[in-house]
Amino acid sequence: xxxxxxxxxxxxxxxxxxxxxxxxxxxxxxxxxxxxxxxxxxxxxxxxxxxxxxxxxxxxxxxxxxxxxxxxxxxxxxxxxxxxxxxxxxxxxxxxxxxxxxxxxxxxxxxxxxxxxxxxxxxxxxxxxxxxxxxxxxxxxxxxxxxxxxxxxxxxxxxxxxxxxxxxxxxxxxxxxxxxxxxxxxxxxxxxxxxxxxxxxxxxxxxxxxxxxxxxxxxxxxxxxxxxxxxxxxxxxxxxxxxxxxxxxxxxxxx
Length: 255
Prior knowledge:
By secondary structure, this protein is mostly helical.
């Protein structure tokens, strides 16, 4: 066969494929504009029976008519589109009982934890750690030097809030898709900047009068630390928080 004739035939076949695809797209758009009743009227006998059996299976699982109609409104257009391509519903979704099980056992969507909840959780954790550490250290410090260089309670609270906000933001950045995630160099600079800010804030809080920023006894600090962790436990339980500073949610992968 002459190469020109071969190329002409290949071009014709390609044009036929494009025309067929264009017709399918037009039909799909028409189906998207149909009501559920109109789609049901255009189903084959086999697919209509499938829909009937699926509705019955959903009803047996405790779904009311309104909930069933909501589910079917999503499925019916795809069933008719597949039908016009020669694919019956049982091949598209499996048997009616299989599809009903998939619908009634859908995994619950994961609701992201708001930033303020994650930051508050981290702040309580840091506050508990700082107060417990300072409480333990107070028992090993000579009484004559306990108030010299010791950290006041307000200073610990402020640092905990700063760390809670900053580390939560860092975790959120690390969870971004790789294409949006900051480079490691920037993350290192972020950490260095965070420590610098913490030191500056700590230096500023030292100038707060001791009356407003007292250095508490070790026993009191230990009690506050325990209360902080207890409050954090209740806070996490009340808001159903699963992730934490030490166990953040996994990174989001690029699709």
